[in-house]
Design brief:
The structure holds three protein chains of three kinds. Chain A is α/β, with parallel strands linked by helices. Chain A has 14 helices and 17 strands. Chain A folds into two domains: about 5-185 and about 325-400, Rossmann fold (3-Layer(aba) Sandwich), CATH 3.40.50.2300; about 185-320 and about 420-430, Response regulator (Rossmann fold, 3-Layer(aba) Sandwich). In chain A, the strands form four sheets. In chain A, strands 7-6-8-11-12-16-17 form a seven-stranded mixed beta sheet, sandwiched between helices. Chain A is globular, with a radius of gyration of 22 Å. Helices cover about 70% and strands about 0% of the residues of chain C. Chain C starts with a helix and ends in a 10-residue tail after the last helix. Classes of the chains: A alpha/beta, B mainly alpha, C mainly alpha. Chains in contact: A-B, A-C, B-C. Chains A and B meet through helix 3, strand 7, helix 8, helix 9 and helix 10 of A and helix 1 and strand 4 of B.
C-alpha cells in the first residue's frame, strides 16, 4: 500500500465529516467519538478508503464454499459503496448505513487463502493487517480456523467478523472481545433439532453417532446427544472417525447390527458427503427396519454445497441451517434477488452470514461514528436488529453470539429446480435456542489492546 | 461373527482399490525403475473420466426455469433425455460403468503422453528427482482438474439396478449380512483387472519381455530389444489400471480434485509392504492392508488401542520395513537396503 | 581446509552441490576461514535489510519476513540432511510441529521468555529426531523416505485426534490467561491481556519478532556453513556420493547420518519454536506430510546442497503462498491498467488462473520446471546467468 503524504490533512478533513455524520445520529455518540478519535489504534484508515480483509478457503476441500463467501463479500462491498440495488442495506432495522462507504470512506477489500489450515489462515490474516492495513477481517469455513484467526485478531486489535463456524467454542470457551459470530452453533442445532426429531421419529429411539474426530465434531456430538437424551432417546454408541476418511464403510457396517434405529452423522464437508452417500445409496439404510421402526439418518448441520455433493442421498434427511434463501421474509427475498441477479445462483447460508457480518460491521462503525474498535465493539454488543433475513436478532454482549430463529430443514423429495435442495420444516423460535452464556465458560478479554498500533 | 465377516468384506473392496493403484505403481517401478508420485493423480484422472463422461451424456439444453421467481434462472435438460426419452435416461443412469469405454483410451493416451513427455527423461536420474518431478506434476494435474470441475465433490451414482445392498448372507445360509452391491462389484472388477494384467504379462510375448525387463533390465537392453517403446506401453497400461480403479470408485467416493493425494501415500505404503517391484506382493498387500484397516476401525479394537484406526497403515509399513525390508513378496536382493 | 573439500569434490563426481562448489567463484571465496565470516556478514546484512529491499514487491511487512527467516532455518536444516547426505526425509514437518508444541507448552507452564521456549523446542525436536532417525536410518533410499513419511503421518493423525489433551487437536494449542506460567508469575502479576512472548522484556511481535528470527537465521546459516566445511560435512558428502565405498573403507556411516538427522531435526525444532514465538499457536497441520513436502520443495527450488539456496527457496515459496494467493481480479486489473481495456481483459484472463486461488498451479509448474531444467535450483540459475553475463564471478553473493 503506497504511503500517502497528504494523509494528514485529509484525515483531519474526514475526522470533521465523520463527526458531523455522527452528530446527526445521536448526541452522546458525538462525545464518544470525539474522544475515540484521539486514540491510536491498529490500521486507523487514513486515506479516503477503508480496507476490509476477506479470508476464505480458496484451496482445499472447502474451496467452493470459500468462493461463495467471497461473492457475498464482494456484493456487500458493492452495496456499502452505494452501487447495485443495495440489497439488505434497505431492510436492516435500525440502520445507520448511508450507502456512501463506511464513514464516508470508500470500501476496498483484500482477499486471502486460508487453505482451511490455522497456520495459513493466520499468516494470511497477518498479511492483511500488516501489509494491506485491513481494519476488519472476516471469513472462514471451519471452526478451527475461525478460532485461530479470532485470537490473532484480539492480539492485533483488529475486529474479526466470523463467517461460517458452527463449533460452540467460537463464542464459548474460545470467545474473544474482538470476535463476533452471526452463524449459529452446535448447541442451537441440538436445541432446535431435538423436539422435531421427537415429533417425527418418536421418543423411544436408539441413536448411533458417527463423529468426525476433532473439536467441532465433539461439540456437535455432545450437543445433539444432550438434546436427544433429554427427550428420552438412548445413545447406543458414539464412534469417532478420522477426518477425511473418505470411505466410511468400516464404520457403517456395525451400525445396522447394533440395535440402533437412528444414525446421526456429525460430519461436515467432504466427510458428510461421503458418509451420507455411503449410508443411503450403498448400505441402503433408509429402507431398513429395526425393531419395527424405519431406520432414520440425521445430519445436524446442513449446507447447500454439501447437499449438492450428496445428490440424491440427501432427500428426506433432517438437519438444521442458519438461513435459507427460500425463507418467506422481505429481507431474504431482497438478498436472494440481489445475489441471484449478480451471480446467477441463489446465495448459500455461508454467503448469507458473510454478507450480513460485513453489513453489521459497517453499521456498527456508522453508529459508533468511529473505526476505533472498542467503540465499534460496544455498538455491536447487545445490538438488537431485524431485516437481515433471520427475523429479530440479538448480538449478545456476554459472548458475541447472535441469537435468532433456527431452521430445521429436510432434503427435498421432489426438487422443483436445481437450487431447491432443502425444504424448511420448522422455524424454531429464538427463545428455544437461547442458553445461558456461562455454560461454556471462556472470557472475552479486554476492549483495549495494544494491538499492531503500538 | 457377522461383524467380522462384514469387516472382511469392507477390507476386500477397499483392498481392491489399493491393489489396483499399487499394481500400476509397482509395475512402473519394476520395469521403468521410476518412482511415480503422480500415480494418485492418475487414479483421480480416472475418476474424472467418469465425471466427464457423465457430463457429456448430460449435455443439456438451457431452459428458463419458471419455478425460480427471484431472478432469471435456467435449468438444464439433457439432450439424450429430450431425444430418446426413457432410453436416454437409462443411458445416463449407466454412465459410470459405460465410461470405462472412454476411460481406457483416454488413460492410455494420458499415460503415453506422460511417459514420452516427462518420465523418460528421468530414467537415468535419481529416485529423489523422480519423486520430486512427479510430485510437481501431481500438483499441476490436480490444479487443472480443480480449475475445470471446482473443489466440491461431484456425486455420481451407480445404476439403480446395482445400487443399494444385497443380502449376501442368504447366499451362504447366514442372516444379518447385507452388503452394498456396488462394492461387491468393485471387488469383482478389481479381481478381473488384476487377472487381466497378470494374463497379459504371462501369456503374451510382450509380457514376457516386460517380465524379463523387471528381472534384469540391462541384459534385456543388451539383447537388442527396443526397451523404450515397451516402457511407453507399460506406463500406459499402469495408467489405465489406475484410471479404471478411479472410474469404478466414483459411486463409492464422490470424487474431488484432491482424491489422488489422499490415495498417494497409502498406495506407496501398499507397494512397500508388498515389496517394490513385486506384482503379486502389491495385490496381496493391497487386500491385506484393506482388511487390517477395517478391523482397526472396530470399536472393540479401538477400545484397547485408541486411535489405532488412524495409524494402522503406517504402523504396518514401519514394522514390515524394519523386519522384512524387501516386503512380503519382494525378491531377495531387489531394492533391499 | 576448504582446499581439501574441493579436491574431494572433484573425486566424487557431479552432484549439483559439488558442481556449485567447484565453481571457481566459491573457491576464491572460501580460501581462508576468514571468508566464512565475510560471507556470514554479507548474509546477515542482506537478511537484516530485507524490510527495505523487499518492500517494493509487497513483502516488506513483519509477518512474511518472519516466515522467510523461520522457513529459511527449516530449509537450511533440511538441507543438512538431504543436501549434504542425500537422504530424502519426507517427514521433517513432524519435528517442526514437535518444536511448536514444545514452545507453546513452555509458554503455558513456565515463562513467556522466548529463549527458554526455543531452547526447549530444540531439545524436544532433537529427542524426537533421535528416536525416529534411529529407526528410519536402518534403511536407505526410498525406504528411508517412506519410513520418515510414515512416522510423520502417524504423529499428525494422533496429534489431530487422540492426543488432543496435549495438542488441542484441530483448534491448535494456544496460550491462555489462566495458564500457570510459574516463572513469570513469581516476578509479576498476570495482566488483563494475553501475555506476548518476549526476549527479556522486548515483546517479539512485529519487527522485533522479525529481528529475533533473523538473528537466529544468521546464526543457523553460519553454523551450517561451518558444518559444510568441516570433516563431518565432508563425511556426509562422501556418503551422498557413494555410501558403499565409505562402508568398504571401514567407516560406519550410521553415526554420521544419525548426527546429521538429529541436527537437522533440531533446526526444524528451532523453526517450529520460532513459529510459536512470533505467533503463539501450534496446530497439527504443521505436521502433515504436505508440510514435509513443502520443505522439500523449498530446498529443491533454491538449490540442493548449496548454502544459500534453501533460504531463497523458502522465501520464494512463502512469497507465492502469501502474495500470489492474494492477487484477485481487481489487483490484476490494476496491474495491467496501462493497457487498453481489451488487452487488459486479455492479460487478466491469461494470468488469473495462475494467481489467487490458482497459486498452487504456479507452484507446481515452477517446481517441475526447476527439477527438469535446473536441478541445481535457483542457485544454479543465478550462476548460469552470472556466467553468461560476466563469465566468472563470485558465486553465492550474487543472490542479493
Amino acid at each position: 500500500m503506497p504511503i500517502d503524504p497528504s494523509a494528514w490533512s485529509r484525515r483531519r478533513l474526514l475526522k470533521t465529516s465523520a463527526a458531523v455524520g455522527a452528530g446527526l445520529a445521536m448526541p452522546h455518540v458525538l462525545i464518544r467519538s470525539a474522544w475515540a478519535q484521539d486514540q491510536a489504534f491498529c490500521n486507523n484508515p487514513s486515506g479516503d478508503t477503508v480496507t476490509l480483509g476477506f479470508n476464505v478457503p480458496q484451496s482445499g476441500p472447502y474451496a467452493d464454499e470459500g468462493a461463495d463467501e467471497l461473492r457475498a463479500f464482494q456484493l456487500a462491498v458493492k452495496h456499502l459503496n452505494g452501487e447495485g440495488d443495495g440489497g439488505m442495506m434497505n431492510t436492516l432495522q435500525p440502520s445507520s448505513l448511508k450507502g456512501n462507504g463506511i464513514l464516508g470512506k470508500k470500501v476496498a477489500y483484500v482477499t486471502g487463502d486460508t487453505q482451511t489450515k490455522s497456520d495459513a489462515a493466520r499468516a494470511s490474516a497477518k498479511r492483511m493487517i500488516e501489509a494491506d492495513k485491513a481494519i476488519m477481517i472476516s471469513g472462514g469455513s471451519s471452526s478451527g480456523v475461525a478460532i485461530a484467526v479470532q485470537s490473532l485478531c484480539q492480539d492485533m486489535g483488529v475486529m474479526f467478523m466470523a463467517g461460517l463456524t458452527h463449533s460452540n467454542d467460537t463464542t464459548g470457551k474460545d470467545k474473544r472481545r474482538y470476535g463476533f459470530r452471526h452463524f449459529f452453533n452446535a448447541y442451537m442445532s441440538g436445541q432446535a433439532l431435538g423436539p422435531v426429531l421427537a415429533e417425527e421419529y418418536g421418543k423411544d429411539r436408539r441413536a448411533y453417532h458417527l463423529t468426525a474426530d476433532y473439536t467441532w465434531g465433539w461439540t456437535q456430538e455432545e450437543s445433539i446427544k444432550n438434546a436427544t437424551e433429554g427427550l428420552g432417546w438412548e445413545t447406543v454408541e458414539a464412534v469417532r472417525t478420522p477426518l477425511g476418511a473418505g470411505d466410511f464403510s468400516q464404520y457403517l457396517t456395525p451400525v445396522l447390527n447394533s440395535g440402533a434405529d437412528v444414525l446421526i452423522l456429525n460430519h461436515y464437508g467432504g466427510d458428510m458427503v461421503n458418509s451420507l452417500r455411503q449410508a443411503v445409496t450403498q448400505f441402503d439404510m433408509r429402507s431398513k427396519q429395526v425393531g419395527g421402526k424405519d431406520f432414520q439418518i440425521v445430519v445436524p448441520l446442513f449446507s447447500e454445497l454439501m447437499a449438492q455433493g450428496a445428490g440424491e442421498a440427501v432427500k428426506g434427511i433432517l438437519g438444521t441451517a442458519n438461513w435459507d434463501w427460500k425463507l418467506d421474509n422481505e429481507a431474504s427475498k431482497v438478498f436472494a434477488k440481489s445475489f441471484g441477479e449478480e451471480y446467477g445462483s441463489p446465495p448459500s447460508q455461508a454467503a448469507h452470514t458473510c454478507y450480513v457480518q460485513t453489513l453489521l460491521y459497517a453499521n456498527a462503525v456508522e453508529t459508533a461514528g468511529t473505526f476505533y474498535p472498542p467503540e465499534v465493539i460496544k455498538a455491536l454488543e447487545g445490538f438488537e436488529f431485524d431485516g437481515m433475513g433471520n427475523g429479530p436478532t440479538l448480538y449478545r454482549a456476554e459472548d458475541h453470539q447472535c441469537f435468532k430463529d433456527v431452521l430445521v430443514v429436510r432434503g427435498k423429495q421432489e426438487p422443483t429446480n436445481q437450487f431447491d435442495l432443502m425444504e424448511i420444516v420448522k422455524v424454531v423460535p429464538r427463545d428455544q435456542a437461547t442458553y445461558d452464556p456461562s455454560i461454556f465458560g471462556g472470557e472475552l478479554g479486554p476492549y483495549e489492546v495494544k494491538g499492531c498500533a503500538a | 461373527m457377522d461383524a467380522i465377516i462384514l469387516q472382511i468384506l469392507n477390507g476386500l473392496d477397499k483392498g481392491g482399490a489399493y491393489a489396483l493403484i499399487a499394481l500400476g505403481l509397482t509395475l512402473i517401478f519394476g520395469t521403468l525403475g521410476v518412482v511415480n508420485f503422480a500415480h494418485g493423480a492418475l487414479f483421480m484422472l480416472g475418476a474424472f473420466c467418469a465425471v466427464t463422461f457423465a457430463k457429456l451424456l448430460t449435455i443439456s439444453e438451457r431452459v428458463r426455469d419458471e419455478s425460480v421467481t427471484f431472478f432469471e434462472a435456467y435449468k438444464e435438460v439433457p439432450y439424450l433425455e429430450i431425444w430418446y426419452g426413457d432410453t436416454g435416461r437409462a443411458i445416463v443412469e449407466w454412465a459410470v460403468p459405460l465410461s470405462i469405454i472412454m476411460a481406457i483410451p483416454v488413460m492410455l493416451l494420458i499415460g503415453f503422453a506422460m511417459e514420452r513427455g516427462l518420465i523418460r527423461f528421468f530414467y537415468k536420474r535419481s529416485h529423489a528427482e523422480q519423486i520430486l518431478v512427479t510430485f510437481g506434476l501431481a500438483i499441476v494435474l490436480q490444479e487443472i482438474v480443480k480449475h475445470f470441475f471446482g473443489a466440491n465433490p461431484i456425486p455420481l451414482t451407480a445404476p439403480s439396478a446395482l445400487a443399494g445392498s444385497a443380502d449376501i448372507g442368504q447366499w451362504f445360509g447366514m442372516t444379518n449380512i447385507s452388503y452394498p452391491m456396488w462394492r461387491i462389484i468393485y471387488f469383482l472388477f478389481s479381481l478381473l483387472v488384476i487377472a487381466a494384467v497378470f494374463a497379459f504379462l504371462q501369456l503374451t510375448t510382450f509380457g514376457m519381455v516386460v517380465r524379463a525387463g523387471m528381472a534384469d533390465r540391462e541384459t534385456v537392453g543388451l539383447l537388442g530389444i527396443n526397451i523404450g517403446r515397451k516402457f511407453t506401453i507399460v506406463f500406459g497400461i499402469a495408467a489405465v489400471v489406475a484410471g479404471l480403479a478411479g472410474v469404478m470408485y466414483t459411486p463409492i467416493l464422490a470424487p474431488n480434485y484432491h482424491l489422488g493425494m489422499d490415495f498417494l501415500v497409502l498406495s506407496f505404503v501398499v507397494v512397500v509392504v508388498g515389496g517394490m517391484g513385486s506384482l503379486g506382493g502389491a495385490v496381496v498387500a493391497g487386500f491385506l492392508l484393506g482388511i487390517l484397516q477395517s478391523f482397526a476401525s472396530m470399536t472393540e479394537v479401538k477400545a484397547i488401542v485408541p486411535g489405532i484406526d488412524q495409524i494402522i497403515i503406517y504402523l504396518v509399513a514401519v514394522v514390515v520395513l524394519l523386519v522384512r525390508p524387501r516386503g512380503l513378496m519382494g525378491r531377495k536382493g531387489v531394492m533391499e537396503a | 581446509m576448504s582446499e581439501t573439500v574441493l579436491t574431494s569434490d572433484k573425486a566424487m563426481g557431479k552432484s549439483p552441490a559439488e558442481k556449485d562448489r567447484k565453481n571457481a567463484g566459491m573457491a576464491g571465496f572460501l580460501s581462508s576461514s576468514n571468508s566464512d565470516y565475510l560471507m556470514a556478514a554479507l548474509f546477515a546484512l542482506a537478511i537484516f535489510t530485507m524490510p527495505l529491499w523487499l518492500a517494493p514487491i509487497g513483502a516488506g511487512y513483519p509477518d512474511i519476513l518472519q516466515k522467510f527467516a523461520i522457513f529459511g532455518i527449516f530449509a537450511l536444516g533440511f538441507n543438512i540432511l538431504f543436501g549434504f547426505s542425500g537422504y530424502l526425509s519426507f517427514g521433517h514437518a513432524a519435528f517442526l510441529g514437535a518444536g511448536s508444541y514444545a514452545a507453546v507448552w513452555m509458554f503455558k507452564l513456565l515463562s513467556m521468555n522466548a529463549v527458554l521456549a526455543v531452547a526447549f523446542s530444540i531439545v524436544i525436536a532433537g529427542i524426537f529426531a533421535l528416536a525416529i532417525g534411529f529407526v528410519s536410518l536402518r534403511r536407505s533410499g526410498i525406504y528411508f523416505s517412506i519410513l520418515t513419511l510414515a512416522f510423520a503421518q502417524m504423529s499428525y493423525n494422533l496429534a489431530y485426534s487422540v492426543l488432543t489433551p496435549i495438542t488441542n487437536g484441530e483448534t491448535g494449542l494456544q496460550i491462555s490467561r489462566t495458564d500457570p506460567r510459574v516463572l513469570d508469575n513469581m516476578f509479576r502479576e498476570p495482566g488483563a491481556a494475553l501475555p506476548v512472548p518476549d526476549f527479556f522484556g522486548i515483546e517479539l511481535q512485529g519487527w522485533p519478532g522479525f529481528y529475533f528470527c533473523a538473528t537466529l537465521l544468521v546464526l543457523a546459516f553460519f553454523l551450517t556453513m561451518r558444518i559444510k566445511n568441516s570433516t563431518f560435512g565432508m563425511m556426509l558428502f562422501a556418503i551422498k556420493s557413494n555410501q558403499n565405498r565409505m562402508a568398504y573403507t571401514g567407516f560406519s556411516t550410521r553415526p554420521y547420518l544419525l548426527a546429521a538427522f538429529v541436527i537437522s531435526g533440531m533446526y526444524a525444532g528451532l523453526a517450529g519454536g520460532l513459529l510459536a514465538v512470533t505467533d503463539p499457536l501450534a496446530g497439527a497441520d504443521r505436521m502433515q506430510w504436505t508440510a514435509s513436502g513443502e520443505v522439500v520443495l523449498m530446498t529443491i527450488l533454491g538449490g540442493v546442497g548449496t548454502l544459500l539456496g534453501p533460504v531463497i527457496g523458502a522465501a520464494v515459496m512463502k512469497y507465492l503462498e502469501q502474495i500470489f494467493s492474494s492477487f484477485n481480479e481487481g489487483v490484476l486489473h490494476r496491474a495491467f491498467d496501462f493497457l487498453t481495456p481489451e488487452l487488459q481483459d486479455l492479460m487478466v484472463g491469461i494470468t488469473s488462473p495462475f494467481v489467487g486461488e490458482g497459486w498452487h498451479l504456479t507452484l507446481g509448474l515452477m517446481f517441475m520446471i526447476v527439477v527438469i531444467f535446473l536441478p541445481g535450483g535457483i542457485m544454479e540459475g543465478l550462476r548460469r546467468i552470472a556466467s553468461a553475463t560476466r563469465g566468472r564471478r563470485a558465486g553465492s553473493g550474487d543472490a542479493n
